[in-house]
Amino acid sequence: MRTVTICNGMFGRGTYGVVRALTDARFRDRNSAFLAQHFKDAEAFSILTTVSVVSGNVVTPDWTQPETRVHEWVESMA
Fold first, then answer.
1. Taking each helix axis from N to C terminus, what angle separates 12-23 and 28-38, rounded to the nearest 10 degrees?
2. What is the pTM of this model?
3. How many angstroms separate the Cα of 43 from the Cα of each of 59, 63, 65, 70, 73?
4. 4, 31, 42, 50: least CB-packed within 10 angstroms?
5. CA-to-CA distance for 50 and 36, rounded, in angstroms?
6. What is the pLDDT of residues 7-31, one digit of tens each?
7. CA distances (Å), 37 to each of 4, 15, 23, 76, 78, in order?
């Protein structure tokens, strides 16, 4: 099985924040567990998330917090 992960943002800081959601040592395991639990039977899915910038610093989104997830889409297995 192969997977493709696409991280895209409106601006560089948004893209950086989404990448950090899956790579930041403080959040990667929590966010990966969220994905595994919520999309375990999905062939494809997407998450539209907010990325906050505070005093010029990107804040890593925590997908376990509903206010960070703006929209979710899932394609279930047939």
1. 80
2. 0.86
3. 29, 20, 24, 21, 11
4. 4
5. 20
6. 999 999 999 999 999 999 999 999 9
7. 18, 24, 18, 14, 19
